[in-house]
Amino acid sequence: MQINFAHLRQPAVSGGWVNFAVFDARSSSNTSSANDVLLDQLTTRARANRLQIDQSALAYREGGRIRFYGSKHLVEFLSRSGLPNWTHTLNV
Predict the structure, then answer these.
(1) Which region, left, alpha or beta, applies to residue 82 given φ > 0 means left and ψ of -120 to 50 means alpha?
(2) SS3 state of residue 33
(3) Which residue of 16, 28, 69, 87 could cross-link 58, Cys pair, CB 3.0 to 4.6 Å?
(4) What is the Cα–Cα distance from 83 to 48, expressed in whole angstroms?
(5) How far is CA 39 from CA 13, 15, 23, in A?
(6) CA nearest neighbour of 10 among 73, 70, 60
(7) How far apart are CA 92 and CA 77, in angstroms?
(8) How many CB atoms lie within 10 A of CB 90?
(9) For residue 32, what are the CA distances in angstroms to 9, 10, 37, 38, 40?
(10) pLDDT attached to residue 92
(11) Contact at 8 Å (CB) between 58 and 39?
C-alpha cells in the first residue's frame, strides 16, 4: 500500500528551520494510542529514506472535514494553513 505524504520545511518561530512531514493516513481504530503508533512507524520509515523530520502529523478526512493528529505545534500550524500538497509516497 502507498501512503501519500508531504515533506516540507518552514521557518521556525525561534529562528532556523523546521522540517516536517504530513501523512495521508490514520489508524483503523482511530484511537489516540493507535494513531501514535502509526505516526511513529510512518515517521521512522520516512527518516529511513534520509528525510529530516523534526515534527510530523497525520491528516485524514472525518465528518467531511480534514483532521490533523500529531505534534502539537505542527497541528496548530496545519489548522491555520491547511493541508499541504503531497510531495512523496511511502510503500508500507
Answers:
(1) left
(2) helix
(3) 69
(4) 24
(5) 24, 26, 8
(6) 73
(7) 27
(8) 20
(9) 26, 26, 9, 10, 12
(10) 84
(11) yes
Residue type, 77: F
Mean pLDDT of all residues belonging to the chain = 95
> pTM for this structure?
0.94
Q: Tell me: pLDDT of 69 over 90.
A: yes
- Whether the predicted pLDDT of 78 surpasses 90: yes
Distance CA 52, CA 61 (A): 26
Residues in the chain: 92
Average pLDDT over residues 27-37: 95
CA dist., res. 8 & res. 37, Å (int): 22
CA–CA distance, 43 with 24 (Å, rounded to integer): 12
- Under 8 Å between Cβ of 3 and 86: no
